[in-house]
Each structure stands twice: as C-alpha cells, then as structure tokens.
Write a structure and sequence with these properties.
Oligomer: single chain
Number of strands: 8
Helix content: 40-55%
Strand content: 25-35%
Order of helices and strands: HEEEEEHEEEHH
Distance between the termini: 123 Å
Structural class: alpha+beta
C-alpha cells in the first residue's frame, strides 16, 4: 500500500461543513467586537484619564473626549481622586486595621472615598463613589417635596383670592 492507493477506510472531510465555518466566523467576529469596544474609552469633561498597563500607571494622561487606546491599558477616571483621598487622610494608618472615610471635591463634584486596609502589609484599597450616585434619590425626593410645597402654596393663595367676594377683590 502506498500513498497513491485509494483509501480503504472511511474518508473524513477535514474542511468541515458550512455550519462549522459559520460558527468559526461568528466567534471570530464576536472576539473582534469585544476588542474594539474595549479599545474605546471616554473621558468626561473636566476630567483627566489615567492609563494603567497590568496595574502599573503608564504616565499617559488622556484629555477629555473619546479615545482609541490599547485594550490592555485601562482608563481609571477615579484614580486621581483615590490618590487625593490617600494624601488628604494623613492620620490613616493601614497597620491599625481601621477603615477611613473622606470627602474629596474635584471639578465642582463631591466624592466619598473609603480607604480600607487589606491583608498585604502596607497596602490599602480605596473605593471612590460620586456623591450624586448615592445621594441622587435623596436629592430627587427633596426636590419633589420642594416643588410640591411650592405648588400647594401657590394654589392655596389663588384659592383664597377666588373665595373672596367679587366686591372685596376690586379694592
């Protein structure tokens, strides 16, 4: 038997069917879309984007707007705020095991930062949350009460004016 003789067993089609090709192309397209979306980042107005590569700051700063970046580099918009929080809390000692909370103001917005020690000696985790995120519902309820009170006040004054006799209104 040589390589040129006809096969004796079952012939397997190594090209695959049309469905297998379609699934492979769909998977490849899905991966490309994920890479494209992870390469686009947006920096809010008045903010500066800080890029990190595998957890280390690269030193590149992004101005406001939309940017196409390396997907391995990530944009951390709250990183400068976390650094400010650590600098402001001078009395914080990670070896004590106590969390510290501080308020940071930047570009007219307030942020709550919580500095929590982690088990690795000398390291801390900083969680930054914009105040508008957790106080938003409270501010919305307060605004609705204020507008409700204003509507009630105006309508009660109009009602009092309408209840007066026509002769009393002319004076």
């Amino acid at each position: 038997m040589t390589i040129f003789d006809p096969p004796r067993g079952k012939v397997i089609d190594v090209q695959g069917g049309g469905m297998l090709r379609l699934l492979g192309l769909a998977f490849l397209g899905f991966v490309l879309v994920i890479l494209l979306f992870s390469a686009v980042t947006r920096v809010d107005s008045g903010a500066v984007g800080v890029l990190t590569l595998f957890g280390r700051v690269t030193g590149e700063a992004l101005p406001e707007g939309i940017h196409l970046i390396n997907p391995l580099k990530t944009n951390h918009p709250f990183f400068p705020i976390a650094v400010d929080a650590i600098r402001q809390s001078r009395d914080y000692d990670p070896d004590q095991g106590q969390a510290s909370r501080t308020t940071i103001r930047r570009n007219g917005e307030a942020y709550q930062a919580v500095i929590t020690p982690i088990s690795f000696p000398g390291w801390s985790l900083v969680t930054v949350v914009p105040e508008s995120e957790f106080l938003g519902p409270v501010q919305m309820i307060t605004r609705s009460y204020e507008t409700g009170w204003l509507r009630w006040s105006i309508s009660s004054r109009i009602w009092k004016w309408l209840r007066k006799p026509a002769t009393a209104r002319r004076r």
